[in-house]
Write a structure and sequence with these properties.
Layout lengths: L7 H22 L21 E9 L13 E11 L13 E2 L4 E5 L4 H9 L9 E3 L5 E3 L2 E5 L10 E4 L2 E7 L9 E5 L3
Parallel strand pairs: 4-10, 7-9
Antiparallel strand pairs: 1-2, 3-4, 5-6, 6-7, 7-10, 8-9
């Protein structure tokens, strides 16, 4: 059997071509691309709640992103991350709660006629300005605006709610179903 002899130059040239060939094949096999967060999140695992957080810290797990960051903590700015609200306080997710004194629900209607009625009852703009609180609760002065059964809670009386002290300003058909507070919100 005849042995082939290679010069050092041909050996190095052969090795270099081999490395280049392997590199080209590797580039063809490995695709690096940017993906949107939706591609990583299974929608069945998402729960939406109304309390946003602006920054979260996550750890990249090597099992998921092999060779990148290797478990180093990173910060990712996000527009909205939600945490579960308390079931003790009325909110847009938990639409009915048992408050400190009554069952509570919420409604979102134009309050102009209700506010006019309260003004005629002596609740002045100066002492009881109408506004919407940061959490979306409609307020008259320092009080949460509440609709209730007026035969039990007359207009203008103060009641305790899960969202703070309420002022009975309104009523509705719901009052026929029992002693419920319907809280005015912009949800």
């Amino acid at each position: 059997m005849k042995k082939h002899q290679y010069s050092p130059l041909s050996f190095l040239l052969g090795m270099a071509l081999g490395v280049i060939f392997v590199g080209i094949i590797a580039l063809c096999i490995v695709e690096v691309r940017a993906v949107s967060p939706e591609e990583f999140i299974d929608e069945r695992d998402i729960q939406v709640f109304p309390e946003p957080v602006t920054l979260v810290e996550i750890e990249i797990l090597p099992d998921y992103i092999s060779g990148l960051a290797q478990g180093e903590p990173i910060e990712i700015p996000v527009t909205k991350v939600y945490v579960q609200p308390s079931k003790d306080k009325l909110n847009s997710v938990v639409g009915r709660v048992t408050g400190p004194t009554n069952e509570e629900t919420y409604y979102n209607l134009d309050m102009s006629k209700v506010i006019d009625t309260m003004r005629r009852k002596g609740f002045s703009e100066e002492e009881y300005p109408y506004y919407i609180r940061e959490d979306g609760v409609k307020m008259l002065g320092d009080y949460v605006m509440v609709a209730a059964d007026l035969s039990i809670h007359p207009r203008g009386c103060v009641v305790e709610t899960s969202l703070g002290q309420g002022l009975v300003c309104d009523t509705g058909d719901f009052a026929e179903t029992g002693d419920i507070y319907d809280i005015a919100t912009d949800w």
